[in-house]
Amino acid sequence: MRETRSKFSRHDAVALATAYLQNDWDGFTTFLADGRICLSNNAAERQLRSVARGRKAWLFVGSDRSG
Description:
By secondary structure, the chain is mainly alpha-helical. The protein has one domain (2-54). The protein has helices at residues 2-6, 13-23, 25-33, 42-54. The protein is elongated and about 60 Å long. The model has no long low-confidence stretch (mean pLDDT 81).
């Protein structure tokens, strides 16, 4: 990765992505050591979807003009 990163300018998208990965290497490789950790956050996003869906509907809950 270091070799690849040195071929691009500092502001190139590949260089930025590589730098991001290198800066959080421990966090990225944690799932390799512990099989219980999921690589994606799909389960968390599914749980939050109902909150995001109802946000506009709940905006005026409790006001006199709601509903």
